[in-house]
Design brief:
single chain, 546 residues, nine-stranded antiparallel sheet, eight-stranded antiparallel sheet, globular
Length: 546
Amino acid sequence: MHMSCTRHAWSRRRALTAAAGLTAGALLPPVGILGAAPARGAGLTTAAAFTNPVIWQDFADIDVIRVGDAFYASASTMHYSPGAPVLRSYDLVDWEIAGHSVPVLDFGPKYDLNGGRGYVRGIWASSLAYRPSNRTFYWLGQIDFARTYVYTATAAEGPWNRLTTINTPYYDAGLLVDTDDTLYVAYGNSTVNVAQLSADGRTQIRTQQVFTTPSSVGTLEGSRFYKINGQYYIFLTRPANGQYILRSSSGPFGPYTMRQVLLDLRGPIAGGGVPHQGGLVQTSGGAWYYLAFVDAYPGGRMPALAPVVWTADGWPVVQLVNGAWGASYPRPDVPPPPRQVTPMTGVDAFDGTNLKPRWEWNHNPDNSKWSVNGGLTLRTATVTGDLYAARNTLTHRIQGPTSTATAEIDFSAMRDGDRAGLALLRDSSAWIGLKRDGGVTRLAMVNGLTMDGNWNTTGTGVEVASARVSGSRVRLRATADVRPGAARSATFSYSADGGSFVRLGPAFSLGNDWRFFMGYRFALFNHATQALGGAIRVLRFELSTP
């Protein structure tokens, strides 16, 4: 879930209404009862340090597990497709995108932008687990408050396939593979429930309410489910400023007692929110960490890492730095990685025949209208004057705190009425791109693309600057400052000669309201306003930081 400050302490369920673990079986490291001073846990003696956020890209509602010496995490993607990215790391600090658990959002035509829209629906807080008995990854999540879907794969990269559909919608679920191989799911909003699944994970055997959140606490959701030293723990978030944990010594169905983990804790991103709604994970050396996210709009929700130690009576405590979640900690003491992870920034020349996992479409694409082969070809897939209604818009997360996206585009195959370019995409958007009309192609900067709180388009854009363009290729550039706090802006520019860039149009003010949940993204688009048949070819895309 997401909220950008404590006054928004209400659930996603209410927001939408208003708008329309891996079992940790190893022994705990020996620790004493903690006082107010930060304690040093196992694996924190290395000299090197890391800085938070560990990923300055939008990955929220994190679930994190370890399989062998590799760590994996899953995150929310809402209406973007493929959904539920699987991130991989060997040290909890440096991460790559390995694949996606949900290959296509086949939950109804609205996710195809066909007779409806799936904006701010789709993949919410979900769960990632690994089952050693069959060496299989499991992803579990509910869609549209209607039902729950389970996908499986034997490798993080996939292929991922749907295992089953369960009619109970497990809201903000946490999946536990118990030490006896039984599958349990913790879920709910304020009322916390536990379900037991069949041995094959395809059906629900039992579900039971196990906890009701006290009115003094408010809302608890975002379940993560663990078994540690024979005790059952449900890790819960209070949006958007707290984290709590439930513990049962009597089995997965309770009874549970509650303890506060953190509340109104200063986070590691200046101007950002309180770290919350993540997961606990243990290294192979026995050290524990909490990977949370920080509300940091307009960029989104950024993962932050902190070490955790346990009290003698079995409760987790986040290690603080000067009373706050640290901006820096010693790096986890883990085995040397087998290789370097693939950076989330840099150049993509669209080599091969498939998109790299750093890319996600705005809703499901029309796969007949795009291809990759030494470049990305985007053929027009929709006739519309509304970018929010156009299919085959390809998005890329922005790298914070500031970054620049540059796309080299061959526009020789555009047709009259086509609009193509590079956008900053959210519920308030702008773009730099190409307009072809009357046989002439020109450059334009357009802003004023807006949605209302029901995600209906309220503005299709206003052209505020234009320039001539010759030849058949151009480089388009967008630079975005996504630091949270004060109003931030982005600028657009172009290069016709492959060398110097020329600014086009005024600065675009980035919206930082939380209600769209996802942060701004760079987006490549090509849609028709008159008739299908045109195309562009993206030869190169680069995401760079200062």
